[in-house]
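From the methods appendix. Each design record in this collection lists the tokenized structure first, followed by the designed amino acid sequence. Records were kept in a plain field format so they could be parsed without special tools. The example shown here is representative of the layout used throughout.

RECORD:
FOLD TOKENS (121 positions):
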């Protein structure tokens, strides 16, 4: 079984995840640090208006839940973590959490066959 991890539940990540179902992929992990905002459902196919309410659901989990509703046979997981972009400063206060997220990310990369990133261009 192919395990795919998608970094960032943005428009392209949502579209790729749906295509992966059609290609027979049955294990998808979403990683994102954000929450679903009111502008997301019109641009990102795995989010709905209800995902925005009460401050917004975590994007990764909302995307995983939506994918499982579309096809209950998928093993979809949402992981919320924050990895600063290379070169961006990390405060001493935030360093332990960032290091824990980096360690968790390393483990996820090892556990998956394919890792894809979606980002703003």
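DESIGN:
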């Amino acid at each position: 079984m192919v395990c795919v991890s998608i970094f960032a539940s943005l428009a392209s990540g949502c579209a790729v995840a749906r295509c992966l179902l059609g290609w027979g992929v049955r294990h998808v992990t979403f990683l994102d640090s954000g929450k679903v905002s009111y502008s997301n459902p019109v641009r990102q196919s795995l989010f709905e208006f209800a995902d925005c309410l009460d401050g917004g659901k975590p994007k990764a989990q909302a995307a995983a839940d939506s994918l499982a509703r579309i096809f209950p046979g998928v093993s979809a997981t949402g992981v919320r973590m924050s990895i600063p972009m290379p070169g961006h400063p990390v405060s001493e206060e935030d360093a332990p959490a960032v290091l824990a997220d980096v360690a968790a990310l390393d483990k996820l990369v090892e556990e998956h066959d394919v890792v894809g990133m979606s980002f703003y261009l």
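APPENDIX NOTE: The longest helix spans residues 95-111.
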